[in-house]
Amino acid sequence: MTDSRYLKRTIVKDQINSIHLNETRNLRIYFPPGYNEVVSYPVIYCQDGEEFFNFGRIATIANRIILDEGAEPFIIVGVEVDTSVRTAEYAPFGSRFQSYVKCFAEEIIPYVSQKYPVRTNPAETVIAGDSLGGSVSLHIALLYPHLFTRVMSLSGAYYEASQEIIAMEQDLSWLDIYMIVGLQENEFQTDTGTYDFVQLNKDTKNLLQARGAQVHYQEKDGKHLWGFWQKELPEALLYFFEE
């Protein structure tokens, strides 16, 4: 049974008008237990924001690890996405990729930083995502290293285009990335083909490590589903926020 303390969550909905995307983008903001608006907090920005909250249960998990497992209180910002254009926004070959990346780094981050008491030091900021959300999080960090040096990648979709971009980097000693992939993701069907996510992640890990990145990499039993990622979220969050 889930402790009732974990279910007392403070979550607000917000939205931002994006010039780069020419549309309104919805946000979900989680505040930790004991939240005080005069105190600043570390922050994690999540792609697929609605799914992280609904299927990943990230707010409940955050409450638990903050209350019981010594995690430093942190704010969560979930950036929602229209699934019909998700690949177009998250994949580097997508038609909306450049606009989305600019919206995220140049509009959403300044908006949140101005309105909410989040810390802006890259050492206290995490960017996270699952599948294509994991790979776009890494791409945003590569393009804006002054904003993001810490990435959480849950079964990242590191297709050939992503690996080519990473291979062009020379020094990634500033990057700290948490990568996990499920061993049953070796024949996963996507809207662009069938892929071996285990091999994609292993190859990407090698590319990153060869360029000096700090990589925490794990392969565990699991499928390309939120059922797997939800179970792994506590350990992933504690990697970044444990005091």
Automatic annotation (TrEMBL):
This chain belongs to the protein called: Enterochelin esterase
| SUPFAM superfamilies per UniProt | alpha/beta-Hydrolases
- On the tree of life, the source organism's domain of life is Bacteria
Record's signal peptide: none
What is the protein's species of origin? Paenibacillus crassostreae
InterPro entries for this protein? AB_hydrolase_fold, Esterase-like, Mycobacterial_A85_antigen
